[in-house]
Amino acid sequence: MNDMKREKISEIISSIDQKYVDKAAARFVASKTVSRIRWLKWGSLAACFAVLVIAGALVLPSLLDGGSETVDNQYYAAFSDSAIVWPWEYKTNCEKFTSVNFNGKEYDIHTDQNIPIEVGLLGEVLGSCEAKGEDPYTDKKYTEIFEVRSINGISAEKMIAAGKENEYYVYKFKDETMPATFGELLDFYGLAQTLRFNRFTVCEGNENEYFENKYFKLNDDAYIWQVLYECREAVSIESDDGLSDSLKNYLSFTVTSDALGIYKRYVKISTDGYLETNVFDYEYVYRIGEDAAAQIINYAKSSSDETDPEPYELTVSGTLTEIKDGYILIDNTVLCANKEDGVVYKILTDDIRMRRYIEFAGIKVGDTVQVKYRGAVSDGNTISGAYSMNKGKLFKGDMIIPD
Fold first, then answer.
1. What is the per-residue pLDDT across 209-239, written as a single tens digit (0 to 9) for each?
2. Does residue 80 form part of some domain?
3. 157 and 192: one domain?
C-alpha cells in the first residue's frame, strides 16, 4: 500500500464518530465474543515499532496490524492499546462518560491511563455538570450529575475535574484552537506548576535521517522554566507550515502530569528555535527563538546524567496459574532460559479493569498473559495498580501479544 493510500485511509478512519465505531463493535461481539478495535491518537507523531523488554519477557509487536507500544522516549502517545468494547457494567466512569457539559460548554475526557486525578490536586467546587453516556450493546442512554471542581493552577475555561465520591477525572474544553502566544499557554494551564521536565532524549541527525540514542535524567528544571517564561511573546505556528517535520536536532522531554491528565507525552526543543508538544492532544508549535532554545539545550545537557531508556509501560508476563477472589498468580518461568529464575507474581485485582478480563473477556488459568501496571513490586512479588491484561502467545521462548 503506498503512502497516499495510507494517508487517505487514515483521514477516513479519523473522521468516523467514535460512538458509531463502538456500536458496530458491540454488535460484532454478540454472544460475548470480544472484538478488538485499534484507535489512533493523532498528534503528528511518527509511528514507531519497538520491542519492550520487562520482567524477563520480550514482547514483540504485531507488525501486520501496523502499531505497537513503544519504549522509545520519542513517541509517547503515538498509539493506544487495542481496546475491548466493554459492557456498561464493566466500564469505569471515565469510560462511560467521555464528555460532560458545564456552563454551556462541552468538555472531553483527558485522562491518558483511565486513572482518577489525585484529590490533592483539586481546587474549589465550581458547581455541577451533566454527564451523558450510552451502552453500545443496548443503545441505552445514561445521565449522571457530576460535581465539578477546579484543578490547581489550571483555568477552568480550559480544564475541569468532574466526578463524584472522590473519583474525579480530568476533562478538557472541546476546543482545537491553539493559544496565540506561549504566554497564554503557560497561564491557561499553569505549566510551571503542573508540568515537570525530567527525562529527555537527545536527537541529532540530518535532513535524511535522525539518531536518538542518548537518554538523560535532568537534575533540576527551574532554569528551563525561567527561560521559557522569557518566551511569553513567542507566537504559535500552524502545523501545516511543515515546521514539525524539520525538527531534526532537538531534545525531547518526557512529560507526565496527573493535573493535566497526561502520561508520557513529549515537549521538544529544537536547535532552530521551536518548541513542539502533544500535551494538549493536538500538535502545538511555538517559535521561541534560537537563543532561548540554545540556553535550554545547553543547560539540560550540562545538568543531567546519562541513563537507560525507560519503558513506556510496566508489564509482567507469564502463565496465569491461579485465580482467587482479589488476586491472580502469574508465573514467568515459561519465559526464563533458566527455569530456576522463574518468579511467581501476585497481582491484585480489586480494580474493575482487571476483573473484567476474567469475568467477561474469558481469560482463564493456563493462559499466557501480559499484565500492565502502574506502581512498584512490593515484598512477596505483589503488584498493585494493575489495569490491563491480555492473552499472549509463546514464540521461541518469547511472548507475542497479538493486536
1. 656 678 999 999 999 999 999 999 999 987 6
2. no
3. no
CA 257 to chain centre: 11
Q: At 363, which CATH number?
A: 2.40.50
Question: What grid cell was written down for 203?
Answer: 536527537
User: What's the whole-model pTM score?
Assistant: 0.75
Q: Which residues of the chain fall below pLDDT 70? A: 1-83, 206-212, 239-248, 396-397, 402-403
Q: Are residues 187 and 264 in the same domain?
A: yes
User: What is the side-by-side strand order in the sheet with 250-257?
Assistant: 284-287, 274-277, 262-270, 250-257, 199-205, 210-218, 304-307
* Cα–Cα distance for residue pair 255/268, rounded to 1 Å: 10
Bridge partner residues of 319 (DSSP): 331, 368
Flag whether 254 is in a domain.
yes
State pLDDT tens for residues 153-165: 999 999 999 999 8
What are the residues whose beta carbons fall under 8 Å from the beta carbon of 347, sequence distance 6 or more? Answer: 316, 327, 328, 329, 330, 354, 371, 373, 383, 386
Q: Residue 19: inside a domain, yes or no?
A: no
Integer Cα distance of 5 and 399 in angstroms: 32
Q: From 158, 175, 192, give the residue that closes a domain.
A: 175
Q: How many domains does the chain have?
A: 3
Cβ–Cβ < 8 Å for 260, 254: no
309, three cell numbers: 531508556
pLDDT, tens digit, for every residue of 369-392? 999 998 789 888 999 999 999 998
Range(s) of the domain holding residue 140: 87-175
The answer to whether residues 170 and 92 belong to one domain is yes
Q: Cell numbers of 322, please?
A: 491461579
